[in-house]
Design brief:
250 residues; alpha/beta; TIM Barrel; 8-stranded parallel β-barrel; 10 helices; 38% helix; binds 2-phosphoglycolic acid
């Protein structure tokens, strides 16, 4: 049996200016001297990456980005490359979040190209997939996940440079979560599909659950088979809440 070191990642989305840096500072302080059984990552807005890293100097908490362009540089006004994220201190980047897929019409092919860019720059790609409520109601969840995995995971992914995050779109920011049985079914399906998408690497690749994870449900959700951590939105903005989730692995 493969042992997988879990990851708890916080996605701040478009939240946080300088004042918000007190949270990573607090987080690093609380975790000082604590023996973590999981990797901890926060993904603040790109404007705060370097400073978040700096206020957590000496801490084991890593910093990541929320999106990157597929190219390394060029005429792409307003975009940011994986190389730039790495240069700012990021060790990972979220790609294919449903908010990007919806708001920016990102396709799975574009998500795969972004993941490849992250790998080229030497940072981990956290590739998000997940069904909408209509797709779940229509009984299409597993088919949607298969299709997204096939198209969003580029070749060359390894358990070291890739994390998959299962985020049912209808569970994001709503306070709703799938049942434990539904999460177990989705994660087992993703695990099986990864054996084709990531030959030889699937069994040891982290599969995070995301969508309304909070301190009160983290322990239960993190104990589901094939759940190797969490991608946390709202509850990652406050250090005390985020710690409440990390506690599932202490
Ligand atoms: P949430 O967001 O925890 O606020 O539901 C999760 C996410 O979008 O990654």
């Amino acid at each position: 049996m493969t042992t997988i070191r879990p990851m708890v990642a916080g996605n701040w989305k478009m939240n946080g200016t300088t004042a918000a840096l007190r949270e990573p500072r607090l987080l690093a302080g609380i975790l000082r001297g604590v023996k973590l059984k999981c990797d901890v990552l926060i993904c603040p807005p790109a404007t705060l990456i370097r400073r978040a890293k700096s206020v957590m100097r000496g801490s084991k908490v890593k910093v990541g980005g929320q999106d990157c362009h597929a190219a390394i540089s060029g005429a792409h006004t307003g975009d940011i490359s994986a190389d730039m994220l790495k240069d700012a201190g990021a060790t990972a980047v979220i790609v294919g979040h449903s908010e990007r897929r919806t708001n920016h019409k990102e396709t799975s092919a574009q998500v795969a190209a972004k993941a490849q860019a992250a790998h080229k720059s030497g940072i981990t790609a956290i590739i998000c997939i997940g069904e909408t409520l209509d797709e779940r109601k229509a009984g299409k969840t597993l088919a949607v996940l298969s299709e997204q995995i096939k198209a969003s995971i580029p070749s060359g992914c390894t358990a070291a440079n890739t994390v998959v995050a299962y985020e049912p779109v209808w569970a994001i920011g709503t306070g709703l979560t799938p049942t434990v049985a539904e999460i177990a079914e989705a994660h087992a399906h993703i695990r099986a599909e990864l054996s084709t998408a990531m030959p030889g690497e699937g069994p040891s690749t982290r599969i995070l659950y995301g969508g309304s994870v909070k301190p009160s449900n983290a322990a239960e959700l993190m104990s589901v088979a094939n759940v190797n951590g969490a991608l946390v939105g709202g509850a990652s903005l406050k250090a005390v809440d985020f710690i409440g989730i990390i506690k599932a692995y202490l």
